[in-house]
Design goal:
By secondary structure, the chain is mostly helical. About 75% of the residues lie in helices and about 0% in strands. It has one domain.
Length: about 400
């Protein structure tokens, strides 16, 4: 079980994209699905094994009724997908209709259920190590494949595609993976009980590699995410750690600014242009999504507008499933936030779940789609899984 959970945590996010980055470096983007689909299916299969092994925890949970809401929402989403495909005349989906429920199953439903059933108290170190080690691998891959562009003033990795037609990893992936790894490394450094020099060197090196990914990605959303984790770290730290964290944060500011300017990162420019470019055009997408919701407020309209999703999971939910869908899924988000706040107050070791949730929330408030929001629903699954720690685990 420990090995299974480590592999799953490793490939949930950064590890999967490390493999994809290597594939793209060989100009094999045309066959990328031969890697991505089997890998995701395999990880989903491993998750199903975990769910089966820990099936008692699936039912014997204090918050089982939230699992019912979760299930009903995704059944409703499937119905809306079929409705959009077969009853919306003159309208074409951006993907084949069955891809939406397939992605939702692999990226959201199965991951949520898997981490819902895992004994988080028992396997939290395994999960953290899986995330951190995969971030290290992606960092190594990024600096090896894209490090040459860092000092060329490209601003953002996506510019490479425009200038040389070279296929590169999505800069948003790099940026959020970098933030995710940085935050977890800081969390682990703050909780090292022994003077383990190897761990300190490994985690510090990982932070540097992840910061390079952050620079290559130059995402405004990921900057907001990491800024929001700072008060969380301070709030849930002991007094001595608060002072240390605040001091290190202040001292690191000039270093971070220098690194951004020296690398030619376009993050400062992008932040300054946010009002002018309306968040990269997201404002118009948000307006269209909200207008579509107002046209169909109860059950929602089509699951996409002209094949484009609004880059905001809340707007996407109301656009596609209306007030009904919002009433089904919003209690899960609200209860999840309340639960993890209370869990972390009682047990500071659960802070990493709260940090994951913040990063996932910010990411999918600014980019991505609800049916691929793995970084949002994995921590939600963990949160509701914590409630089941008092029950027997058939894997033991």
């Amino acid at each position: 079980m420990k090995r299974l959970i480590f592999i799953i945590a490793f490939f949930v996010y950064s590890g999967f994209y490390a493999g994809l980055a290597i594939l793209l470096s060989f100009n094999l983007s045309g066959v990328s699905r031969l890697y991505s689909v089997p890998t995701r299916v395999l990880i989903a299969f491993l998750m199903l094994i975990v769910i089966h092994q820990s099936r008692n925890r699936l039912i014997k949970n204090n918050n089982y009724h939230y699992l019912v809401l979760f299930t009903v929402f995704w059944v409703f989403y499937l119905i809306k997908t079929l409705y959009t495909e077969y009853f919306s005349k003159g309208y074409e989906l951006g993907k084949t209709w069955y891809e939406y429920p397939m992605y939702a199953l692999i990226y959201v439903v199965i991951p949520f259920l898997a981490f819902y059933t895992i004994d988080i108290e028992k396997y939290k170190k395994t999960i953290i190590n899986g995330f951190i080690s995969s971030g290290f691998l992606l960092g190594i891959a990024s600096i090896t494949l894209y490090g040459k562009y860092l000092m060329q003033g490209i601003g953002r990795l996506s510019m490479v595609r425009y200038q040389s037609n070279e296929e590169v990893l999505n800069p948003l992936i790099l940026s959020y993976a970098g933030v995710l790894t940085i935050v977890l490394c800081i969390y682990k450094l703050m909780n090292l009980k022994r003077n383990n020099k190897f761990q300190i060197i490994y985690l510090s090196t990982n932070i540097v590699l992840s910061f390079i990914m952050f620079l290559l990605g130059s995402s405004r959303g990921s900057l907001i995410a990491i800024m929001l984790t700072i008060p969380i770290f301070i709030s849930f730290s002991a007094l001595k750690q608060k002072v240390k964290f605040i001091t290190l944060s202040i001292l690191s500011i000039p270093v971070i600014i220098w690194a951004m300017e020296a690398s030619g990162s376009s993050l400062f420019e992008r932040m300054g242009n946010t009002v002018e470019d309306k968040g990269g055009g997201r404002e118009s997408l948000w307006k269209d999504a909200f207008a579509h919701f107002l046209d169909n407020p109860i059950f929602g309209g089509k699951i996409e507008i002209g094949g484009i999703y609004p880059h905001n999971f809340l707007l996407e939910i109301v656009m596609a499933t209306g007030i009904i869908g919002l009433m089904l899924i919003s209690p899960i988000f609200i209860k999840g936030i309340i639960l993890i706040k209370n869990h972390t107050k009682k047990n500071k070791s659960y802070l990493f779940v709260l940090l994951l949730l913040i990063i996932g929330l910010i990411q999918h408030l600014f980019t991505g789609s609800i049916y691929m929001a793995i970084l949002l629903f994995v921590p939600l699954g963990m949160i509701f899984g914590i409630q089941g720690n008092s029950f027997s685990d058939s894997s033991r």
